[in-house]
Design brief:
about 240 residues; mainly alpha; Globin-like; 9 helices; binds protoporphyrin IX containing FE; Globin family profile domain-containing protein; Globin/Proto; oxygen binding
Length: about 240
């Protein structure tokens, strides 16, 4: 910040007192340049890696069906229900498109959508565990992609902070699973904390990148109109000189 300020001061001091006012044409061109610079999207990179031991991976795999799905087949649905109860705004996102005849929101459609979503989440994690073998890069790619999908729900009120709420509810439900071997439970939970935290972070990265490209697209459309207008003004000015 300090260096930015001193660079600005140096910049100002170098302007000659005799510097002339830029012409209207120059001002127009500078505006076009400034808009173009603002179009460049800014990308975040994740700060963490998924670094699970072979033992953690094995325990997560072994307990997926025999413990997790056997004891709580609706764990991902319940996670969503708890999350909606804590943050009712999530319901608006889920209820979007579930109106019947433009009147009351159909409870049935909302709960069917939540079921569908819970199945989507369950399949997503199964894919990371069994197909992607919880590999850091493969999981990151899928999580970023699904984060980008969630950017299309922003228009209905989706917020990245929902993922934090979702995360803590999922962990709480996982903690309720019963294990014969308590040491295995400790390893299982430490692995899931990492997986869920990592997926959420990467989803936010994908969400954010997509939102920026949507905004950049909108800006591009506006800039296109502004450039057209500026070209018109420039042509008129040029015809006068
Ligand atoms: C780590 C957490 C989450 C994961 C891994 C996840 C993953 C998914 C997946 C895989 C789908 C299916 C997408 C498709 O088939 O195209 C989905 C759909 C959806 N998700 Fe999430 N999601 C998460 C959290 C949330 C949260 C907190 C909300 C809050 C409202 C949410 C809202 C939705 C909605 C509205 C759909 C569309 C459902 C439909 O129309 O079928 N998701 N999600």
């Amino acid at each position: 910040m300090g260096s930015c300020q001193s660079r600005q001061r140096r910049g100002r001091a170098s302007i000659s007192p005799a510097a002339r006012e830029p012409s209207t044409v120059e001002k127009s061109l500078r505006n076009v340049f400034a808009f173009s610079v603002n179009m460049v999207p800014f990308h975040f990179e994740p700060l963490c890696q998924l670094d699970l031991s072979e033992k953690q991976k094995e325990i997560v795999k072994n307990h997926w069906t025999t413990t997790l799905l056997a004891q709580k087949p609706d764990l991902f649905y319940t996670t969503m229900v708890f999350s909606v109860n804590q943050s009712p705004k999530m319901n608006d996102v889920i209820a979007a498109g579930c109106q019947t005849d433009g009147n009351a929101t159909s409870e049935f459609l909302v709960s069917a959508k939540m079921e569908r979503m819970a199945m989507g989440v369950r399949d997503f994690f199964a894919r990371q565990i069994f197909d992607n073998n919880l590999d850091s890069v493969l999981v990151a790619n899928d999580a970023r992609d699904i984060g980008a999908v969630h950017a299309s729900y922003a228009q209905y009120g989706f917020k990245p902070a929902f993922l934090d709420i979702w995360q803590s509810n999922a962990i709480e439900l996982l903690q309720g699973l019963l294990f014969e071997d308590l040491d295995e439970k400790v390893v299982f939970l430490s692995a899931w904390r990492q997986i869920i935290g990592y997926v959420s972070e990467l989803m936010m990265v994908g969400y954010d990148a997509k939102m920026q490209s949507i905004r950049a697209g909108k800006r591009r459309a506006t800039i296109h109109e502004q450039i057209e207008t500026q070209n018109l003004i420039t042509r008129r000015i040029m015809s006068l000189v």
